[in-house]
Structure to design on (300 residues):
């Protein structure tokens, strides 16, 4: 480490500032979903019975399984950081792939869930949907919008982790400089955090 | 320049954190089966916040970062909390 000073000049890296920037971005994401949670809480407060009826229409077990899937994917991405710190690139890449596969499993579950609702005509525009009580209609609109927006974040997160894998393989992410991987992991954990609230608020009310 | 990694989490520490989160998820589902009346939302949010705090502190390494990060997170939550509170005060007083 005698040449630390020259290293700093050659590759200026301020990983704390980089992570701080990522956190600032996460705050904007938090407030994006926060606005929706605000709308949800007011409408639920005004339509408690309709929201409860809507919630009991959702399959609690698919929701619970998806919660476990996302928590496990958070574990694998957190462990990939440990792996890169130990300079075990192979393990880091395997763990990142596991995370991406779990993201896809989550989306496949969502696909089955939504296609079931599609078959019974439980989506905006159908006759079934129009005859629902107003509050239950609001519940499903919020359900589609919030879990849909969350689903978009799952897709973006998985793509981002794909770039992380590429950089590990290219040798741009090393045990000396892995802040890009840390920021990718932070984004993935945020996706998990939002689901932690979506799950009880939509699936567990009755 | 080497990144600070003296505060890294071991594989087993990560797995322990995950196990606690799974147990809390199980509790969340079980608790929802009881009719808790007015407490339903409060209990659900409390359990969700416990899980969220664990994810943020350990998986997102907030516990090991500079204190500034936690201050910023709390500040953001304070802003969000005041949005919720002010909107509800509006509805309650109509």
């Amino acid at each position: 480490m005698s040449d630390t000073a020259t290293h700093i000049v050659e590759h200026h890296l301020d990983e704390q500032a980089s992570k701080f920037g990522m956190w600032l971005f996460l705050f904007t994401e938090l407030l994006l979903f926060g606005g929706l949670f605000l709308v949800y809480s007011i409408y639920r407060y005004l339509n408690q019975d309709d929201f409860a009826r809507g919630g009991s229409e959702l399959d609690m077990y698919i929701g619970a399984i998806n919660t476990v899937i996302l928590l496990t994917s958070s574990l694998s991405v957190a462990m990939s950081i440990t792996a890169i710190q130990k300079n075990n690139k192979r393990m880091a890449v395997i763990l990142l792939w596991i995370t991406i596969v779990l993201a896809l499993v989550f989306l496949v579950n969502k696909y089955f869930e939504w296609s079931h609702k599609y078959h019974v005509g439980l989506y905006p525009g159908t006759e079934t949907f129009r005859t629902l009580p107003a509050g239950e209609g609001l519940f499903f609109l919020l359900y589609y919008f919030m879990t849909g927006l969350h689903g978009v974040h799952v897709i973006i997160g998985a793509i981002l982790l794909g770039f992380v894998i590429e950089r590990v393989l290219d040798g741009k992410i090393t045990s000396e400089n892995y802040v890009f991987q840390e920021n990718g992991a932070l984004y993935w954990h945020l996706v998990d955090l939002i689901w932690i609230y979506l799950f009880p608020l939509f699936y567990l009310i009755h | 320049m080497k990144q600070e990694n003296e505060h890294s989490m071991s594989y087993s520490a990560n797995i322990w954190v995950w196990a606690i989160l799974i147990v809390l998820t199980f509790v969340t589902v079980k608790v929802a089966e009881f009719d808790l009346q007015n407490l339903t939302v409060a209990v659900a949010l409390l359990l969700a916040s416990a899980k969220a705090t664990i994810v943020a502190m350990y998986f997102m390494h907030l516990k090991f970062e500079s204190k500034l990060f936690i201050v910023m997170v709390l500040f953001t939550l304070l802003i969000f909390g005041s949005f919720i509170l002010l909107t509800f005060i509006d509805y309650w007083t109509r």
